[in-house]
Amino acid sequence: MDKYVIRGGNPLVGEVEIGGAKNAALAILTAAIMTDETVVVDNIPDVSDINVLLEAISVIGATVDRVDRHTVRINGSTIGSVSVDYEFIKKIRASYYLLGALLGKYKRAEVPLPGGCNIGSRPIDLHLKGFRALGATVTIRNGVIYASADDLHGAHIFLDTVSVGATINIMMAAAMAQGKTVIENAAREPHVVDAANFLNSMGANIKGAGTDVIRVRGVESLHRTSYTVVPDMIEAGTFMFAAAATRGDILMKNVIPKHLEAMTAKLVEIGCQVEEFDDAVRISAKSRLGKTHVKTLPYPGFPTDMQPQIGVALCLARGTSIVTESIFENRFKYVDELARMGATIKVEGNTAIIDGTETLTGARISAPDLRAGAALVIAGLAAEGVTVIDDIVYILRGYEDFDKKLRDLGAEIELVSDEREVQKFRLRTG
Ligand code: UD1
User: Fold this and answer.
1) Predicted structure pTM score
2) Cα(166)–Cα(190) distance, rounded to whole angstroms?
3) Whose CA is nearest to atom 17 of ligand 1?
4) Domains in the chain, start-ordered, CATH in brackets?
5) Catalytic-residue membership of 272
6) Ligand 1, atom 38, residue with closest C-alpha
7) Of 117, 229, 294, 379, which one is the catalytic site residue?
């Protein structure tokens, strides 16, 4: 099984090119099957979640042509089935977007209940409530969601909880419903805006994405487009906190600084230097980090997908910090792994109380999920000695060339597949 082996202690210094946003690309590539014309999407990250999704849409019959590592050409006219295979679905949560896309286009979808990261119970009741409001009949039998409608019609939908997935999914189905849909209490994440911009570039009529009221006027059909996915704010944020935790100095290139504001504000608060450019951000940390309190919130609040990364940085800060997770209930699984590295963290309900320590020490640990896994890599980079991280398959779901990008910044990290290679790394770097 693949693992990362890391010899920590080097401050990360240099420049890193940030890729396209995984979560935006998942929505966009699914929406691309809603037209029978050819769609070209570029700046897609080459990560396993994206590759699994592309396989899933090609298995239902769409023509998927990988033009190059970051560009794909999709044609949905060849789709022969609205029934999606469980093999793909169990691996990625975003497979739920196939419901909205197929229902919108064909008025019928059969999609197994999704899998994905185990970061808490992740209901999709709001997605289904939205489809029902648009006139679909939705049932769940034998682990499969069946949605169908004679005709979808616009509706006024109030989301009880701010949900990225439900907002995008309902927006997709509504894009091809008859009449006008209003989604209230919509999510405002950059990937919601990106998915709306993409649909509009195919001829949809969506207004208000980026605010909490989205208005969709349904259209009969969608057409060809070429589209570039937005930069990944979570990949950028992960490198920003890697700079902080290793007391390094990194320039993140190809980012939208506005999307990073919740993170840059916290980095300033804990004593980092932040410089913003048009499409780049530089973070440097010259001295030991300071403590803070942080609570995850929907955008533009501090992202839940960055909670483990800031948690790791705060393990090394002076004083006691408090991290509150308000989106998912099971996002502190990395805490036990960090304790093995010498961190002092107490979790009470949805709050982690972190007593900062001067140094972490390398240990044998496992990645519990995607973002927590990335955070543990940061811990390993900041720690003294060697850290071996198992179960990195989670990390590969969302970070392209993570080890290479870190090596280019001066990290000693390698992706290895067995114990012999771990020993060789220890010898070589020791
Ligand atoms: C997306 C992101 C994920 C990120 C999360 C929050 C993708 C593929 N994943 O996940 O990386 O952590 O947004 O920014 O884009 N909820 C319900 N009922 C529903 C849907 C959601 O109660 O039908 C609740 C969830 O349990 C959670 C909250 O709403 O507490 C937010 O979840 P949501 O924004 O939907 O997350 P995802 O779209 O699954």
Assistant:
1) 0.97
2) 15
3) 123
4) 3-18+231-429 (3.65.10.10), 22-224 (3.65.10.10)
5) no
6) 165
7) 117
